[in-house]
Amino acid sequence: MKFGKELVSQMVPEWEEAYMDYNSLKATLKHMSWFKESKESAAPMASTPKGSLKRRLTLYRAFSGLTGTQRGSPRKSDDEVILVRAEEGEGSEGLYQTMFLKSSEEGAEQDLVFFKKLDCEFNKVNSFYKKMVKEMVHEAEELSKQMNVLIALRIKVDKVGFGNLGSNEISTSTSMNARHGHSRVHMDVIHEVEMSDGRHLEDRKGNHEKQTMEGFRPASLEILDHVKINMNTPETPISTIKGLLSSPNSEQSFSKRDLRKAEEQISIALKEFYHKLRLLKSYSFLNLLAFSKIMKKYDKVSSRNASKDYLNMVDSSYVGSSDEVNRLMERVEHAFIKHFANGNHRKGMNTLRPTTKKERHRITFLLGLFTGCSIALIVALTIIIHARNILYSKGRTRYMENIFPLYSLFGYIVLHMIMYSANVYLWRRYKINYSFIFGFKEGTELGYREVFLLSSGLAVLSLAAVLSNLDMEMDQRTKSFSELTELVPLGLVIVLLLITFCPFNIIYKSSRFFLIQCAFHCFCAPLYKINLPDNFLADQLTSQVQAYRSLEFYVCYYFWGNFKTRSNKCLESDVYKAFYLIVAIIPFWIRCLQCFRRLLEEKNTMHGLNGLKYISTIVALVMRTTNELHRGTVWKILAATSSSIATIVNTYWDIVIDWGLLRRNSRNPWLREKLSVPNRSVYFVAMVLNVILRLAWMQSVLGIREAPFLHRTALTALVACLEILRRGIWNFFRLENEHLNNVGNYRAFKSVPLPFNYEDDEENSVI
């Protein structure tokens, strides 16, 4: 792989604009090479460079006389090509500028352009790295304070548990250490306060041994009097209710439960902080390598030796010489291994540095197998339908009204999984960091192959079940269908549920449980704190209305109908009709509650407007369903009016808010400033398709209940599939917009809540 592509593949997507623009500099060198070759072909004999030694010396003296810090050795020979200096003064601190000493030569304009671009890229990289390191140091100080409080909390909880320690200080006598070994561990923790300074670990160890021999006075537990524990943040139903009922001035107490919660939060914070440091270290390494590569290419193209001087400057700059990130990484490793891995180095490092997921050939093989089986089953199903003339058989209507709605459930799920698989493929192709946006644990996210494998596996099971249940006529002797084959759809649902909730570590357990957790948060809205995965899943649920109605039909058909004769009276039941409407409203109501929860927390009126949008959709859905069940002119007018309003509002929100498009004065007219897909026509096609697919509700309002060669239930399933396709299109552009917002803010890390809040601004330390 060429270095340019390798650099792009290893970039932190949210920092893409902060990296060196290697391809642009490479293009400048190509232009320089073309210019040089054209000159050589026009004049084979080498021309003597214009300008004299006197002129070059004059340039050198003028350069040396400028204000600034001189980089490189003070003695320069006539063979020197460039001089690099760091400017000083307000607004220019840390900026580097290169002077090209061969500017009098023919074609030197290309070199001047190259070094101007090179300086601009280097200053960008150096400034960004310095800014990020400063943020990391500040965060390390905050984590140090959190660790200090955690250590004091550990001792406080142990003190309450043992009941025989002093009030504010921990005795360090040998006898008490012998009686309370666990407390001695915490004294070591206090003495070794992690991440509180920049001393080397070896120095700490030596000081520890010295003070252990001489005795030391551990920190006072008074630090706990200046902090509050964030244990009742409204993130869960219980904490939300506690936050509403508890008094703000209630006295806080310390318990083992609080300690476990604090340890868990700080552990997560340390892991996330370490991940940031690793990304920052990778950023530095890739950019330094890129500057080395581009300077070597320049030497080759220009036949000069400028790389040595420039790379010396790069090595002496902040991005090339700072070792702060490595020191922070060592301190985090030491703290995490000692206090969150029981001193087990391998366990601690495996937690801090999870192994990347490897592509397995087994997945590719099974994917091909299941896909081939699915195609074969579809072909077999088509042949059997034509061979038996099923489309024109007497039992066709009974099958479509009783069996088809059962199997359509699996069709909706398979299609949605295929669309999500396509989304993952496109997100990866266009460098959209979906795993960060969704908050997946590193190495546990499913790729498009894994998702497509699951969908193809479910498709094989569903199609095989359909083939086993294609009988159109009842047994003349028993006047019923085979009981075993009629129970196949229900058995398939049970198998699917068992796989989904299986507690064993098979079939992507972490992903299954992540989905279950998000679904539980959705159904418990607004008691849980709302995050993007919950919002995203709730949006997916709004496109699966017919799937919920299929599940309702399962209950009615198998428990109140006669599945042996394929007959039911579901549509004659008022209870069924009521739930037919309720199950369709639930996903939109969930999104509405999520919006109002965010409105209360963030005080952003856009969330309130979004909630009103879902209310308009609920009204339209109620009117359409009522019109479908109770035909009448009034209901038809109400359904058409409410659906039109909801369609206009939802379409505007999709395109303008969720996708961030239709920006009139943007760099890309009527789109937005930044686009991930180079072909701009894709966005216009997507907008048109979104509008067209949102108008699928018209078939129910216009009374189009059947079409040529399509039964009513088949037409309903087709409209539901169109909505799933629209949702798949929406998914890509929604996450693209979210990713570009992260890129604009260089937001490559998730925020981790910390367990302790200081009541004052004084820095409390246990040293």
Automatic annotation (TrEMBL):
Its main location: membrane. The keyword Transport applies. One of its GO terms (biological process) is cellular response to phosphate starvation. Pfam families: EXS, SPX. Residues 1-312 form the SPX domain. Residues 571-766 form the EXS domain. It is a multi-pass membrane protein. One of its GO terms (molecular function) is inositol hexakisphosphate binding. It is found in: Cell membrane. The keyword ATP-binding does not apply. It comes from the Eukaryota. InterPro entries: EXS_C, PHO1_SPX, SPX_dom. One of its GO terms (cellular component) is trans-Golgi network. Belongs to the SYG1 (TC 2.A.94) family. May transport inorganic phosphate (Pi). This is Phosphate transporter 1. It comes from Cajanus cajan (Pigeon pea).
